[in-house]
Amino acid sequence: MKRGTSLLLLALGLVFTQCKNEAYQTQSTTNTAVTAAATPAEKEYTYETVPNDPLNARIYTLDNGLKVYLSDYEEAPRIQTFIAVRAGSKNDPADATGLAHYLEHMVFKGTTELGTRYWEKEKVELDKIEALYEKYRATKDEAARKKIYHQIDSVSGVAATYAVANEYDKILGAIGAKGTNAYTWVDQTVYTNDIPSNQLERWIELEADRFADMVPRIFHTELEAVYEEKNRSLDSDGRKVAEVINTELFPTHQYGTQTTIGTIEHLKNPSITEIKKYYTKYYIPNNMAIAMSGDLDFDQTIRLIDKYWGSMEKQPEPAFTVAQEQPIQKPIVKEVLGPDAENVSIAFRTPGINERDALVIQMISNLLYNGQAGLIDLNLNQQQKVLQAYAYDTPMKDYGTFRVTGMPRQGQTLDQVRDLLLQQLELIKKGSFDESLLQAVVNNDKINTMKAYEDNGNRADAFVTSFIYEMPWEKFVNRPAVFANITKQDVVDVANKYFSNNYVLVYKKTGKDPNAQKVEKPAITPVAVNRDVQSEYYKAFMAKEVQPLQPVFIDYTKDITESKLKQNIPLLYTKNKDNGLFQLYYILDIGTNNDPKLGMAVNYLKYLGTDKYTAEQLQKEFYQLGTSFDVFSSGDQVYVSLTGLDENFEKGLNLFESVLANAKPDQKALNDMVAGVLKARDDAKKNKGVILQQAMMNYAKYGPKNPFNTVLSEKQLRALKPQELVNIIKSIPTYEHRVLYYGPRETENLVATLNAGHNVPATLKPVPAEVVYPELDIKEPTVYWADYNMVQAEMMFVSKSVPYTKDIIPVVRLYNEYMGGIVFQDLRESKALAYSTYSYYGTASKKERANYLVSYIGAQADKLSEAMAGMQALLTDMPLADANFQNAQAALRNSISTERITKSGILFDYERAKKLGLNYDIRQDVYQNANSMTFDQLKEFQQKYVKAQPQAILVIGSKDKLNFKELEKYGKVKQLTLKELFGY
């Protein structure tokens, strides 16, 4: 992956809808004159469509074999794009694993025209670097390798003076693109962008140039970023478990014999030559697809794609021989050690995605675990027989995997959890489940599909799935019909076929990994990034004019219908014009800061039945109706929600209201829940993300007593009474609250339904005053650190700023846009100090609260001093880069001009605005000021609110790897124990 975003599962988001007609329909477009795009002017384009396709997609194939998938869905003047290559880590050479992933990084580095000042001079140096890496790769003597690497570092510094770092990203930012990224997985490499619709031609031209002319520049610093990514994976127990599972399930196929990120040995010995060979072999038009969904015109778009991509030459399609795995004859048992909480996983090898059995396994996955009424949901999670358990299938091209995982309760062994998981599989194999559950799974799959297809990202991703797995669009569209026709006998037969003693069993235990590895830090001299230099390509690109788009801001008075329910309850309503789904919320301004027992009561509800239904029956009833409920509590609010099919709104509402009014106390459920809470608390202390991002952050903001660690003690938990929590549940609708609704109903009908179904007393109680934790003034620099067994060290720099005021929001948005690029360029591209790093000025969620400056960097522990110095230098003396500043301005305006807050987002945007004392869309201020703001204003903001502000520096890492003398340079060093952080 390019940045720290995990997109590995993106291509698995298989969303299916029902279709009755299985035939393709081939049509021809009607030629329309398209200004400057029709090349050649009279060319006609044939395309495939499928009847009853919910995406109304057109699938084109250019003369050179490039596939183009298009869907017109105009939720905003934007287009979600994916460029997919049918090649991933399984296509890596066995002696150069990680190559596909590293090539993905290189595709962002520019071309012979983009990202370079003097290509001819740069090429001479790049050729030297390539030859040196081949020599380095072939050399075994460590002393000789160090000398060669020193040469690589030296020549790289020269080459960088001719390059312009990050120029592709600058362009995308300036035109208002979002989500610029990529991901590599076993079968695919996919490049993502969400672009404004008025930038379509410029984007198509840019991408055609990028994929036709890849230059692997700024190589060794990017390689170090990949090293850091590898270190992050070595610090992830979950990734280690997954790697062991794949290795054992696929001892012959590349799914198991090599990982996407590659081995340490291969990362240490990269080959630019091999990367170029891979690029030439697989990055060819007949092995690629462009998938787009959004505000587009079919005829214009295909003509533009053909204009710029049509000249790419078709090449022989690369062949791939699928390694045939032998059956697993008996359970394979493995153990993984690491600092995280214990769990156990059972994994099976399954057929490839195009096999019908793979669809049946997807059904089995949902029958076992769907978050509501699956066997694992009801028999294990609902009954609290384990702390948590789940099941999921992972379809891939050649094979798939199916996995069940469980976390033990206090005193429970991993073997006991294993047995419980296997028992649920046995129920499936024996057919010991209600046949009606099959239809409920099908119905909920339709609902999930409707939800998913409200988003252009999911729509375009469906195309990627079809292309990567060579699944004809007709087959993809008609999978729901096949899914709906799966019988109970199919399920039993497939379960017995694939699920026997042929599994891999992995015990994830808490402990120090004796085989822990680390990619050693190489000696790297920071390279020039030439922030204020622009290539001729960049200048010409940015000089092209496009028709600007006008922003659309929310008008809360027009976009939200306000009404009143009985007892004067406010109703805020936005109409769903797209489908038959609804979202209903009751919102109370009272939270766990007022009463910590409220959180316990809210969680208790899911384990309770009523006077008419058991807890298990309730979950089945909701699932059968295609609805789900949730009650969520935060420090200052309670959200009660009901979502699902509007046709079942009355039934779902009545059922949900009966749960709130008639929850039945259950002592065993409470005892089990308390035990589960205590175990979950213990597990949280083993999670580095929770320790740093939540526990340490709250400590820095509020001190030893803070919202995070103000929880009921074990003694208080064990003293709770079932009726006490039920009374709290029943009291929720008795407080003053408001109702939010997004759905297809008309106001009059909605009001009548809610007045009839929403049970409230004659007089609502006022909510108590909010309990506010005072925010600390950070008076002197302090370094807080927590000990954690890990390869990397992670740190956050936290500074308290002024209370929220809308007047500074425009400059805040510009500052964040500008500094985001500066931090990435400097710490990652130039100095190779981190894979993931960021800095932003975060505004408060309530007007009386403080804003905070938060910066993060995760790096090898031996880079700690350089990383801290690098971040501090940027925060202290913000560099002036005129090109970056102009880009930030353009990015801000182009982004806002194409943003559209729609659907239920309108209601929640209004909720956020009210907390800040706003009665209008604050983006108006940002847009109006973006172009007129100067760098002097930005500098003034930085001097006043960023530079020299007292910091709390939070560090998590292994005690034996941290450099405490270096930490002392930044303030008084204090270790925080887990007891201090968590309060227990």
TrEMBL record:
It comes from the Bacteria. Its cofactor is Zn(2+). Keywords: Hydrolase, Metal-binding, Metalloprotease, Protease, Zinc. Residues 273-443, 762-890 form the Peptidase M16 C-terminal domain. GO terms for biological process: proteolysis. SUPFAM superfamilies: LuxS/MPP-like metallohydrolase. It holds the Pfam family Peptidase_M16_C. Residues 75-113, 604-697 form the Peptidase M16 N-terminal domain. The keyword Metal-binding applies. InterPro entries: Metalloenz_LuxS/M16, Pept_M16_N, Pept_M16_Zn_BS, Peptidase_M16, Peptidase_M16_C. GO terms for molecular function: metal ion binding; metalloendopeptidase activity. Signal peptide: none annotated. PANTHER family: NARDILYSIN, PROTEIN YHJJ. Belongs to the peptidase M16 family. This is Peptidase M16. It comes from Pontibacter flavimaris.
